[in-house]
Design brief:
There is one protein chain. Strands 1, 2, 3, 4, 5, 6 and 7 form a 7-stranded mixed β-sheet that branches. Helix 1 packs across helix 4. The protein starts with a strand and ends in an 11-residue tail after the last helix. It is an alpha/beta fold. The chain is built from 4 helices and 7 strands; from the N terminus they run E-H-E-E-E-H-E-H-E-E-H. Strand 3 and strand 4 form a beta hairpin. The protein has one domain: Rossmann fold (3-Layer(aba) Sandwich), CATH 3.40.50. The chain is globular, with a radius of gyration of 15 Å.
Amino acid sequence: MSSIHIIYASTSGHTEYVVNVLTALLRQHGHAVTLTRAEAAKPEDLQKGDVLLLGSGTWNTGGIEGQLNPHMHALLFERATDVSLQRKRVGLISLGDERYYYTTRCTEHFMRFLKECGAKQFLPPLIIVNEPYDQEERITTWGNAVVTRLAKGNGDRLPKMGQ
């Protein structure tokens, strides 16, 4: 089975909830999952695991709406600027609130990071809008896509959801 390292930023508990539901599912399928909070993560933590999952909500900080959680931003764009993740398989978990114009713009920031460090997107992002507590089916569907993708190996083609 594969090792999966999840680095997440959660201040309100929403991202942590999503990550915990996902972790339980992945472990149920026999995968080794480790979790690290973004504020405690070191740049080298981004290189752990066969697959890296990054999770963050979209924040209204820094004077502009639509940013990564400040802890995730500090990790990716301040502390880990010299990290190379050439061909590292990375999945993204993005949360947001429909009250804001840039609902889940953290996804764009994640994508910029992937491009800058040479990582490879593992699956289309898991996007959760509004509170996640009644969205377990969406989380489980994405988690099952992770499991299926891992079972298929390291192919370079980015699959569509449901494949």
